[in-house]
Structure formats: structure tokens, C-alpha cells
Design brief:
The chain is an alpha/beta fold. The chain is about 35% helix and about 25% strand. It is built from 12 helices and 14 strands. β4 and β5 (about 90-95) form a beta hairpin.
Length: about 350
């Protein structure tokens, strides 16, 4: 039998819960939330949130730091009680049936929740025992998970010696000791290097392939683009747009023009010229020679490029393509996704919850 690689969860992920019978077929919606509100003092961290998450999908919740993503997840996972609104998880009310909801979900937060003084194996054996496994079965389960998450070689090492990516993978393994039907992943790849991020992405895809539903919050637009079947864009505690990645991109324009000038000194002259020709706002990129704009009429692009040429503005490169999710977010919110929004007391409350 070939060794497991990250994301190879065959025979691992769908482990039966030793404490309960198999769940009956559930509703088509894993989450149905309406008008969820959460205050922290005078701050409205979540402000009338509506979500409908189909089962068996990756649902992305996209927004900058402080947009209310973590608060929303904590309410849906029954860790915080909403101040208004309602939500059901697999048809179960998150307030009146909170215990039943908890039996069907798991939450992996932004920081690893495993014990750093224990080894990776000891952490998973401990959790398996708490779930009711026998001593022998707990060790078998723990070692299978360590293999699947590419951690077998570090099984006997204390977690404090693990890299950030290894800790995150162990945290994910811990969350599926007994595989839940719904997994909340709150910014699971924050701070990880590209290789570790790709490993976590593979694991998420494998979990969904095995039948789980994943609600993923992220501030990385490419992560939502790669993983999510549908995406809710959240800003200031409410959903401002929802749909598939392609639907969101098409909602803000048919294309995105990216221009790079030979001479960066010409950018102040080129910007208003492009804006007039395209009849659209032009963004100044971090590259001092680069500009971009979301356009709805490809014919205007040809005219704009011709006007730049007639005005003596030489181009190093230009490209017309589908808008990126970064451009979608900027068009919808008026600020880039990387911008932090000050949640005030909410940020502290979220971290402490």
C-alpha cells in the first residue's frame, strides 16, 4: 500500500463516531442563517448576516480582518449567542439545540489548539480517548491520521518543535478524529508558507470529497478562488455579495485592463486619460509604472490604448482579462481586501471567546 500524502484521507476521514449511530440523511442546507447580529459594547461586529450553505461544498466567507468573520463562525458553532436573528445547522437551532449542533460540527480556529508539551501522537491519542475509543483503537486512529497528514515522521516529537505548517496540519487532524459533518475553518492558512498552504488546500478538498461540508473564512482572495464553490463577501458585519467566483467577477465588469508604462513618470498623465477613455475609475498599483481598471466594454479598451499611443505614452505591457477577486472586493467595498477594519472591542472579544 503506498504511503499517505496530505489530502489522501481514504479510510481515514470518514471514521464512525463510536458514541452514536449513523446520522440520518440531513437537509440540503448545512447552514441557514437569517439576520444574525452580535454586539460587543457599542460595536456591531455582525450586522444582519444571512447565509445559506449547501451540504457537501466548500463555502468561502471572504473579508478583511475585523469584518466579522470570526464572530459569525463562533455564533454558528454555538460558542457565542447571537443578539438577534436565527440560524440552523442541519436543521438544528444554534441556540435551543446547541448540544445537538456541537455533535455534528468541528471548529479549527486561527491558532493551533493542540497541547505543545505533548507529542503529535499523544495529542491525537488523547482526543481519541476522549471521544470514547479504546486505548488500542485510539493509537491506531492517531497513527492513521498522522500518516494522512504527512506527520508520521514527527509523531514522537513535542508539538512545540513543529513548524507552523505542521501545527496547522495537526490541528486539522485533531478536528477530524471523529469526522464531523460540518467543519468550520477560520483562516486556516494565515501565516503559512506557500507549500504548507497548498498542503492544507489539498486536505480541505479531500475532506469535501469524503462528504464533509466546509465553511472557510479567509482574507486571501486566491484561497477563496481556488477552493470555494460559492463565496460570501462580508464587509462591516454583513454580506454585500454572494455567488460563485465567476458570478462575482462578472458582476463588476466584463474584464480587467492592466497597463504597465515604460516610463513611470508618465503615470500621472496617463491616469486621467485612461479614466476618460474607459469611462471607469483607474487604480494606481503598487508598481509605480502600473495602472488597472475594471471595464464593461472591450471596444473602449482599444480606444483607450490608441489614445495613450497618440499622446506619446509608451506601454511596456498591457493585458485584458477577467477581473480578479481582489478587483471584485475593491469594486464592492471601496477598499482593498488587505485593509484592516477596526472592530474596536469586537476584536478583543473575538480573541477571548
Amino acid at each position: 500500500m503506498p504511503p499517505h500524502t496530505p489530502g489522501d484521507l481514504d479510510g481515514v476521514a470518514l471514521q464512525a463516531d463510536p458514541l452514536s449511530a449513523a446520522a440520518a440523511a440531513g437537509p440540503t442546507l448545512a447552514i441557514e442563517a437569517s439576520g444574525l447580529v452580535k454586539h460587543f459594547g457599542a460595536t456591531r461586529a455582525v450586522d444582519g448576516l444571512d447565509l445559506r450553505v449547501p451540504t457537501g461544498t466548500v463555502y468561502g466567507v471572504l473579508g478583511p480582518n475585523g469584518a466579522g468573520k470570526t464572530t459569525a463562525i463562533r455564533m454558528l458553532a454555538t460558542l457565542l449567542r447571537p443578539d438577534a436573528g436565527s440560524a440552523r445547522v442541519f436543521g438544528l437551532d444554534i441556540v435551543s439545540e446547541a448540544d445537538a449542533v456541537r455533535s455534528r460540527v468541528s471548529l479549527t480556529g486561527q491558532f493551533a489548539s493542540v497541547d505543545e508539551d505533548l507529542t503529535g501522537l499523544e495529542n491525537l491519542v488523547l482526543l481519541s480517548r476522549l471521544w470514547g475509543y479504546s486505548r488500542a483503537t485510539a493509537r491506531t486512529r492517531a497513527r492513521a491520521l498522522l500518516e494522512a497528514f504527512d506527520l508520521a515522521a514527527a509523531a514522537e516529537r513535542q508539538v512545540k518543535t513543529y513548524s507552523g505548517g505542521m501545527r496547522r496540519r495537526l490541528d486539522l487532524a485533531a478536528s477530524i478524529v471523529v469526522t464531523p459533518e460540518l467543519i468550520f475553518l477560520d483562516e486556516p492558512t494565515t501565516g503559512l508558507d506557500p507549500r504548507s498552504r497548498n498542503q492544507v488546500w489539498d486536505i480541505i478538498r479531500a475532506l469535501v470529497a469524503e462528504g464533509a461540508t466546509v465553511l472557510l473564512t479567509t482574507q486571501y482572495l486566491d484561497e477563496a478562488d481556488h477552493l470555494a464553490d460559492r463565496i460570501a463577501v462580508i464587509d462591516h458585519g454583513r454580506v454585500i455579495a454572494e455567488g460563485s467566483s465567476s458570478q462575482l467577477k462578472s458582476s463588476v465588469g466584463s474584464g480587467a485592463l492592466h497597463v504597465r508604462l515604460f516610463d513611470p513618470a508618465q503615470r500621472p498623465f496617463a491616469e486621467p486619460l485612461l479614466a476618460r477613455a474607459l469611462n471607469a475609475p483607474v487604480r494606481l498599483e503598487a508598481d509605480p509604472a502600473a495602472l488597472s481598471a475594471t471595464v464593461s466594454d472591450a471596444q473602449r479598451v482599444t480606444q483607450a490604448l490608441s489614445e495613450l499611443s497618440r499622446a506619446g505614452v509608451a506601454l511596456a505591457t498591457f493585458a485584458l482579462g477577467q477581473p480578479s477577486l481582489d478587483e471584485v472586493f475593491l469594486a464592492l467595498t471601496g477598499h482593498p481586501a488587505e485593509a484592516d477594519i477596526d472592530d474596536g472591542p469586537a476584536s478583543t472579544e473575538e480573541a477571548a471567546a
